[in-house]
Amino acid sequence: MCCEGQPAKLPDGQPALHMARSSRGHHVHGLGFSVSARMCEAAKSSWPELLRVKAEAAKHKIMRDRPDVQVIVVPADSMVTADVNTKRVRVFINTSNNKVVKVPKIG
């Protein structure tokens, strides 16, 4: 178990075989590799700190924080679908200065 009672997961979403504690913190061991406990932390779902940041820098920050999501940069006045996709972050930008104008979030 890790993360406040949540079962440890491997990168493919399968349950981890077992856990061991090291001097560096928790590590999940299984199938020939380890996954740090950082993967068990609550996944970030919004990035308010990216308002007024250049689009490319914002995109890279989100990709570092959540490599499991697709990051899409779109002009603020673009028509987009209303569906919710937990593997997508839209970054709405002002095309005149290429800066983020709306808090990027999962969906």
Considering the chains and any ligands shown, give keywords for the structure:
single chain; about 110 residues; mainly beta; four-stranded mixed beta sheet
Give an overview in words.
Strand 1 (18-22) and strand 2 (25-30) form a beta hairpin. The strands form two sheets. Strands 4, 5, 6 and 7 form a four-stranded mixed beta sheet that branches. The protein has one helix and seven strands. The chain is mainly beta and 107 residues long. The chain has one helix spanning 55-65, and strands at residues 18-22, 25-30, 33-36, 70-75, 88-94, 99-100, 105-106.
Q: Specify the helix fraction band.
A: 10-25%
The gyration radius over C-alpha positions equals: 17 Å
Q: Tally the helices: what do you get? A: 1
Q: What is the helix/strand order?
A: EEEHEEEE
Distance between the termini: 28 Å
Alpha-beta content class: mainly beta
Shape: globular
Tell me the total number of β-strands: 7
Mean pLDDT across all residues, rounded?
A: 78
Describe the sheet with the most strands: 4 strands, mixed
What fraction of the residues are assigned to beta strands by DSSP? Answer: 25-35%
Spans of at least 5 consecutive residues whose pLDDT stays below 50 are 1-6, 16-37
Give the SSE layout.
Elements: E1 18-22, E2 25-30, E3 33-36, H1 55-65, E4 70-75, E5 88-94, E6 99-100, E7 105-106
Parallel strand pairs: 4-5
Antiparallel strand pairs: 1-2, 2-3, 5-6, 5-7
